[in-house]
């Protein structure tokens, strides 16, 4: 019982920590086309069904956490919702990372 309680506690803490890190990644829309020249951006173009994109998510969250105190903004665009963004940046596959 003690082991289960400890595992549940660790899972809750991990979930809170992960959501804090993930919140550093900005969820962008087609408005990104208007603002992408304002400042420095590191953006992942992704599709929700893409297995490679899903594996990149925790790493991308750590990148956002690491760059949070810098002038570089870290975001992501769901290219299945915002196809005009994918077209504008000539996205041919997922994930695509642009700077």
Automatic annotation (TrEMBL):
Gene3D superfamilies: Glutaredoxin. The keyword Transmembrane helix applies. The chain crosses the membrane at residues 7-26. Its main location: endoplasmic reticulum. It holds the Pfam family Thioredoxin. Coiled coil: none annotated. InterPro entries: PDI_TMX3 (IPR052250), Thioredoxin-like_sf (IPR036249), Thioredoxin_CS (IPR017937), Thioredoxin_domain (IPR013766). It is found in: Endoplasmic reticulum membrane. GO terms for cellular component: endoplasmic reticulum membrane. Probable disulfide isomerase, which participates in the folding of proteins containing disulfide bonds. May act as a dithiol oxidase. Acts as a regulator of endoplasmic reticulum-mitochondria contact sites via its ability to regulate redox signals. PANTHER family: PROTEIN DISULFIDE-ISOMERASE TMX3. This is Protein disulfide-isomerase. It comes from Apis cerana cerana.
